[in-house]
């Protein structure tokens, strides 16, 4: 008999004329015992003497065997029931077993609880719903060059700018690429990467809730840091939703982070990951082949693809701790963002003489 399985058990001794007993996990031990006793009494009444009553001082072999099996079944049933109800374990066996399945029985026995992702996923949805209205798509319209291919990714890294090369030969502005950005001020100021708006003749910004893209002008740009500030006017005269900056120095490696952007034109895509490293230096190869060194970047495994450039990297509070900037083309899950502390210092200088409400 296997007492570790919740299934019917059967003892088949047909050659000896014994009754077959079955029990289930829901059967009470007392009911089992009564059935066993009734069966023993019935066997005793049909012994070798052929009489209708039990004989004192004599017990047939089948009766002895039946009594033995009945006792074994009763003990097994009691053990099984106590195991299922945790009668002797104080309710801790289930905790240890669950933890052991996760490879952490020692922690569970000590009362240590393993972390759950449920609260994190709920935070992700909240952050997205709050931050997404402030994230925009930026379209760069420029004069077509004679280059047939653009080097999106350098040897060690590159710009995820989703640049496109048009087949037109006219000198009219054509769509050269798309990127992301976000409002950091309710008056219409947008932060993005400098490489997203480079060589643009015209910039069109798609804002959530507006059917027609808005025309943006460049307020200032910092090529060394790959940052640019744009300005759009709200046609209805109201303010825009804006994101606030967090302290990237307070972010820890392993913290959850969230990226929102427009990878490959798939607008308002959210990806999640962790902060993989801080203070990361990288060298990016520009379109003309020249190297560009960057310092103090945040590294993350949140998916960053062409079109994510300029989008926010958020913590679970919905604060901007970085601007997504580059990826390693030879790897998976290695992206980089400009830290918020670097951004804030730079933007203050770029916005000198301009009224900013939420920086």
TrEMBL record:
SUPFAM superfamilies: Trypsin-like serine proteases. GO terms for molecular function: serine-type endopeptidase activity. One of its GO terms (biological process) is proteolysis. InterPro entries: Chloro_Bact_Ser_Proteases, Peptidase_S1_PA, Peptidase_S1C. The chain crosses the membrane at residues 64-82. Gene3D superfamilies: 2.40.10.120. It comes from the Bacteria. The keyword NAD does not apply. The keyword Hydrolase applies. This is Trypsin-like serine protease. It comes from Paenibacillus lycopersici.
């Amino acid at each position: 008999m296997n007492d570790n399985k919740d299934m019917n058990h059967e003892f088949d001794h047909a050659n000896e004329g014994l009754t077959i007993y079955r029990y289930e996990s829901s059967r009470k031990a007392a009911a089992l015992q009564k059935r066993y006793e009734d069966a023993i009494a019935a066997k005793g009444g049909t012994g070798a003497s052929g009489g209708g009553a039990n004989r004192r001082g004599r017990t047939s072999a089948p009766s002895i065997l039946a009594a033995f099996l009945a006792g074994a079944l009763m003990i097994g049933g009691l053990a099984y029931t106590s195991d299922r109800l945790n009668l002797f374990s104080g309710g801790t066996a289930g905790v240890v077993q669950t933890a052991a399945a996760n490879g952490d029985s020692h922690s569970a026995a000590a009362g240590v609880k393993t972390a759950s992702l449920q609260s994190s996923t709920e935070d992700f949805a909240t952050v997205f719903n709050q931050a997404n209205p402030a994230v925009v798509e930026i379209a760069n319209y420029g004069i077509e060059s004679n280059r047939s291919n653009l080097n999106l990714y350098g040897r060690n890294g590159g710009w995820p700018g989703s640049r496109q090369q048009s087949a037109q030969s006219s000198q009219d502005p054509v769509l050269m690429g798309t990127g992301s950005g976000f409002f950091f001020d309710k008056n219409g100021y947008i932060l993005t990467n400098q490489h997203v708006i480079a060589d643009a003749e015209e910039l069109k910004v798609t804002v959530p809730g507006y059917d027609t893209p808005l025309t943006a002008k460049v307020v200032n740009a910092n090529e060394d840091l790959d940052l640019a500030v744009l300005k759009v006017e709200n046609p209805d005269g109201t303010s825009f939703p804006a994101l606030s900056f967090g302290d990237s120095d307070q972010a820890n490696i392993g913290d959850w982070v969230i990226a929102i952007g427009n990878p490959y034109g798939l607008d308002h895509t959210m990806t999640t990951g962790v902060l993989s490293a801080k203070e990361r230096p990288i060298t990016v190869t520009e379109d003309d082949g020249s190297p560009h060194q960057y310092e103090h970047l945040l590294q993350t495994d949140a998916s960053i693809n062409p079109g994510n450039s300029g989008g926010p990297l958020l913590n679970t509070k919905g604060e901007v701790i970085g601007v997504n900037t580059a990826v390693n083309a030879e790897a998976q899950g290695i992206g980089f963002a400009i830290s918020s502390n670097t951004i804030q210092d730079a933007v203050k200088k770029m916005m000198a003489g301009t009224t900013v409400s939420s920086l």
